[in-house]
Specification:
binds magnesium ion, binds 3-methylbut-3-enyl trihydrogen diphosphate, 255 residues, alpha/beta, single chain, 6 strands, Undecaprenyl pyrophosphate synthetase
Length: 255
């Protein structure tokens, strides 16, 4: 493995996104290409999280949201769903202590309801244990759906008795599962599809999008750095006119 720091190897990374969201897609096709069962792809995909989290930490990304299981994924064959649930339990048991030691703050975005009670407990314990850590936040979108999230937020807002006039973008953001986290700056999708699949649909309103054909188990630190190089080239306008870049003279209109 190349030991040279990523920022030196990739000097074209001139801006690091604060929050990156990843749609970890392509596990099934990765396995299929090797003549393996789909679950072997999910296992390889789960193992890959450690490598990408390490690279994200090195690159000084502060929040990494990973899409691990969608509300729509319940529609897969029962054995696959059961396998994905087992993998979640396994990975929490195996990794939490190390993540905690490395300053990782674990968050969960999604509905706990619907997940087996013992897994709910494991998730909550990992979140509580690591809540004070500040090096990087690993936000795991599990049993997550963007539309379900908005419904849950609205129900909660109404239950808390907010007046209609008090409902603002900031209030809704605060009530989402991601409350308190900044919006994602960059959404990466592996596996070659060009869609959000119900991921962070509210929060990604102004995110930059990056898609790669690489299947998730093969997405490594070079791939992440390449996505950040591409992000560095983007001009984020937020509906306004281009900002003068460094070295460019600002055009000042006469008063
Ligand atoms: C992504 O990989 C993981 C989950 C959705 C849980 P897929 O399982 O969707 O892989 P492909 O898209 O079938 O290759
Ligand atoms: C999105 O991948 C969900 C996750 C990565 C967890 P899918 O494979 O479920 O998305 P679609 O079905 O291709 O839209
Ligand atoms: Mg898929």
């Amino acid at each position: 493995m190349n030991k040279q720091p990523l920022r030196e190897r990739f000097p074209n990374i001139t801006r690091v996104p604060h929050h990156v969201g990843i749609v970890m897609d392509g596990n099934g096709r990765w396995a299929q290409a090797r003549g393996l069962p789909r679950l072997a792809g999910h296992k390889a995909g789960t193992d890959n999280i450690r490598r990408v989290l390490q690279a994200a930490t090195e690159l000084d990304i502060k929040v990494l949201t990973i899409y691990a299981f969608s509300t729509e994924n319940w529609g897969r064959p029962p054995e696959e769903v059961a396998g994905l649930m087992n993998l979640l339990g396994e990975v929490i048991r195996r990794e939490t202590r190390d993540l905690h030691a490395n300053g990782v703050c674990i968050r969960h975005s999604g509905r706990l309801e619907g997940i087996a009670p013992h897994l709910q407990r494991q998730i909550q314990e990992a979140v509580t244990l690591t809540s004070e850590n500040r090096r990087i936040t690993l936000n795991v979108a599990f049993n997550y759906g963007g539309r379900a999230e908005i419904i849950d937020a609205l129900r909660h807002i109404m239950r808390d008795g907010h007046a209609p006039e008090a409902v603002t973008e900031a209030l809704i953001s605060q009530y989402l599962y991601t409350g308190g986290l900044p919006d994602p700056d960059l959404i990466v999708r592996t596996g070659g599809e060009y869609r959000l699949s119900n991921f962070l649909i509210w929060q990604a309103a102004y995110a930059e999008y990056y898609a790669t054909p690489t299947f998730w188990p093969d997405f490594d630190e070079v791939e992440l750095a390449t996505a950040l190089e591409e992000y560095s080239r983007r001009d984020r306008r937020f509906g306004k006119v281009p900002q003068p870049g460094p070295g460019q003279a600002a055009i000042v209109s006469p008063q």
